[in-house]
Design a protein that fits this description.
mainly alpha, binds zinc ion
Length: 125
């Protein structure tokens, strides 16, 4: 299996949930941080696979995903004010899971690897 280097070279996953009240420079800075986090994660997976040729890519990617979920849940803890509007979408474990599942769906569908030429439902000419 070849390494997905082209993932980070042509990363085009869009940033979701950018607040409308941010000015452009804030949005640009947030986009850059998002892009850096995305690229570093893919590069780190590639470097793990390079360093250990025996490592199964599924194990590396499952670990990266588990770490990303851990970090996301840590970062999205509500602030403690029960009336906070910013935290309404993450105010309970169920709300956070719903938010996380929506992001997983959107990022998966935006990935150039969402569809594979080897998918069994792909028509063969
Ligand atoms: Zn809050």
């Amino acid at each position: 299996m070849s390494l997905p280097y082209e993932v980070f070279k042509s990363a085009t996953i869009g940033r979701l949930n950018i607040s409308e009240d941010m000015d452009m420079s804030d949005a640009d800075a947030n986009d850059e941080i998002f892009e850096q986090a995305f690229q570093h994660t893919v590069e780190f997976g590639n470097s793990m696979a390079e360093a250990d040729k025996e490592a199964h890519p599924w194990d590396i990617s499952d670990g990266l995903l588990a770490g990303a979920i851990q970090y996301w849940l840590y970062a999205h803890q509500p602030c403690g004010d029960p009336l906070c509007e910013d935290c309404a979408s993450v105010s309970t474990a169920e709300n956070r899971l719903r938010e996380l599942q929506q992001l997983v769906q959107e990022y998966a569908e935006e990935s150039q690897y969402f569809h594979s030429p080897h998918d069994i439902n792909v028509g063969r000419a």
